[in-house]
Amino acid sequence: MFLYLEDIVPNGLIELIESNTANEISYKQAMEYGYQVALELEKRGINTTLVFYKNKTIQFERDYKNIFDFYELDCATIVKLKPNKNVNDLRDNFRGYQTLDNVIAMTSQESRKVLGIKKAIIE
Q1: pLDDT in tens, 80-100
Q2: In degrees, to the nearest 5, what angle opens at C-alpha 23 toward C-alphas 43 and 15?
Q3: Cα–Cα distance measured from residue 70 to residue 80, given in angstroms and rounded to the nearest whole number
Q4: What is the CATH number of the domain that holds 71?
Q5: Quick check: is 91 in a domain?
Q6: Residues 46-57: pLDDT tens digits?
Q7: Which residues contact 121 (CB under 8 A, 6 or more apart)?
Q8: Largest CA distance in the chain
Q9: Residue 54: domain span
Q10: Are 19 and 122 in contact (CB under 8 A)?
Q11: Are 111 and 40 contacting, i.e. CB atoms less than 8 angstroms apart?
Q12: pTM of the model
């Protein structure tokens, strides 16, 4: 299975927003989160390849400029949800087509920890 920026960035952002941790994500954070999601999928017996490279990044920014704002901060690219969008827009556009295994991996406690989310999903 392949995971792309459009799988990882928005789904990481969903977790951050819903946990009231942050309303933006850096590409570095997204890569760390994606790596953990891939590890979680591997635990389920699903071989996973992350596809992050410069041309895909440029394409991601061009394709989704109506949903996200992109800016540089301390030499890092930050992705932030546009003010006129909300987490339901992210779910509709980026989570609905994910497999159950992907969603379980993306919402796992270990994957959420990589994003700096400390509290449990269910309290």
Answers
A1: 999 999 999 999 999 989 999
A2: 25
A3: 6
A4: 1.10.10
A5: yes
A6: 999 999 888 889
A7: 107, 109, 112
A8: 41
A9: 2-114
A10: no
A11: yes
A12: 0.91
